[in-house]
Amino acid sequence: MKSRDISRRVFLRQAAWSGAALTLAACLPAEGHGAAEIINPVTDKVTPGTVLMSWVTIDPTGRVTLMCNRSEMGQGTFQALPQMLAEELEVRLEDVNVIFAPANPEKYGPQPQEGSFSVRGWAPRLLRAGACAREMLIEAAATEWKVPKHECHAENGGVIHRISLKKLAYGTLVEKAAKLAPPRGVVLKKRADYKVIGKSIPRKDIPLKTNGAAVFGLDKKIPGMRYAVIERSKRFREKVKGFDDSEARKVHGVTDVFKVCRPVFSQFCEGVAVVADSLWAAMQARKVLKVDWEDAEFEYPGSQSLEKQMRENLEKIGPQPRFENEYAGSPQKLEAFYETPYQSHTCMEPLNCIADFRTGGIEIWGPIQEPNWVQADLSQRFDIPIERVTVHMTFLGGGFGRKAFPDYPYEAAFISKEIGAPVQVVWTREDDMTAGPFRPGAFYRLRSGLTAQGKIHAFQAHTATQWIGQEWSPIPPAGPEAASYNTGDFEGLLPSYKQGIPHYSFGGAGIHSPIPVMWWRSVFASTNGFACESFIDELAHLAGKDPLAFRREHLPDKRYQALIDHMAKLTNWHLRGKNHGWGVAFTECFTGICGHVVKVTRNAEGKVRIEKVIALMDCGWYVNPDIIRAQVEGSIVMALGAATTHATTFDDGKAVQQNFDTYPMPRIADVPPIEVHIMENDEKPGGVGEPGLPPFAPALANAIFDLTGRRIRRLPFSLDDIS
């Protein structure tokens, strides 16, 4: 597992094409649709336009190399993918080496690490690639022994003849197997026969990350590399009117000071770069740099003005007559407003990137979450052929969507071109937390009508927020009156509610703001989930029904019924005591379903304390339970911070929170005991890294209501303020 093993990669590629190693690839048809096929580049014709992905190579020593086209930012890709390959290939897990594939969509297909896609995206083709290679090696051995293929089987990196008990290691068979065509219709193992998949095998990347051997972006060094930091405006989209670098240039080691720009969607933000032969010198010089900003003709929003705009837009969203009629005729009605704030990504590893813009090309190294986007963006903006932009991925210390954005690689390339040398641009924590992009804040208006029997007859969710998709367009969003209804899923809400509620209505309106916004872990499920699952709880209370049973009543799909039943059993829901508060919530995003039960009680001072969180994940077919538990636990800790300790607010066009002193993260003592359970079923593989976050905030708020009778409709809130 050496992300820096370039020479090995080159060797493997050359060996594959020469037939000295067995290499298989997943292939997408040139026309861009249809299922991926497994091909052998030696025997199969690769037509122009064909997309090859997920290279798997077995060399003459029997070593297996998986070329991973996605980033590893802590989510466990570098463990789950080898487990899948080892299972079907019949090799030991420790014999599978993983290396990062450089950005190249023509060879490795789409490479964004987003949407909790690692396992659910890779499983179909990686399992088949392993099975194809296994069958080709068996066939090669059978030919060598001149025995029927069905008398042979693969095991532990070799092929065994069942009758004679002769064995040949994979490495001795690869040359012969490389001349065979991959079998079509290969049969995958049954789940009951798995030996590696489904096991909590310790991750191979953890020792590297604990002993310092793993190469993150900040660890990477290039010969002759310089360092740069950038003084950026604290207001969004201001321009540099002028600067005085006389004092900055006196700092020993400083070599250059000049104006730079950073593309932020369809806009540009300006700044002044300080370049030095050490990061320390660059940071010291930045402190004495004086920049005069041009701030005329720009909008400077504050949190109050943003909230006002969202509230006004909520009220302007046009009615949907069908819902209005059903709502008006309902015996019981309820209306509530919910609010969620802007959030910073605050990845533990601050943004950084190395660029070497020389010899007519650009080479990038860094914590990159979306290498294809970076490659295409730099190619277009600097007008150089895309094949001359090389993007190398390192390990990421968290991403959460932020490190998919190509602005910081652009800055590095810009500066490298200017100085004619490789450079590493480093963002400070303050840079990261004030420049964005941020998760957008959102306001919700929810209304529902119940039948006389206490069932939901009509359900409506309206939202006003900054639409992320609008960021790419300079055209302001359409007015709230133009809101359309039910044009897509209401992200986070369980789809089965649409079957259990006769009349539902979703609509929204965007607001315009210069504040850049972008994907944040679980995207809009993180805000929609809080509003909707809290409101469902309110409806259960209005109907006088148990909140878990109330949900079951409106979720007719068998999968959700099983999920709720299992949650009731896990938590002993029927034993809820009067001196404790129990809250439940379920959400779904990126094909993963997760439910949380949060238990709260009062401490000696009478304040609310989280006693325990019980999470139940239904991600269908899965690979490594321990990775799932770790992802859900991490999601809960992140959700705990977003719900109770921090938010990004704005004043006069600037982010107020600049570091962890004003944007506090949960401490170890704040994190309650967490139990994570996994549903066992035969559903297709679903997402894990993001679905575990959205249900926490509503489950906590519902638990607090159960204990105190106080309904929380705005995040964040302080547990210390609730008694």
From TrEMBL:
Pfam families assigned: MoCoBD_1 (PF02738), MoCoBD_2 (PF20256)
InterPro entries: Ald_Oxase/Xan_DH_a/b, AldOxase/xan_DH_MoCoBD1, AldOxase/xan_DH_MoCoBD2, AldOxase/xan_DH_Mopterin-bd_sf, N-heterocyclic_Hydroxylase, OxRdtase_Mopterin-bd_su_IorB, TAT_signal
Domain Aldehyde oxidase/xanthine dehydrogenase a/b hammerhead: 211-297
GO molecular function, one term: oxidoreductase activity
Domain of life: Bacteria
This protein's name: Molybdopterin cofactor-binding domain-containing protein
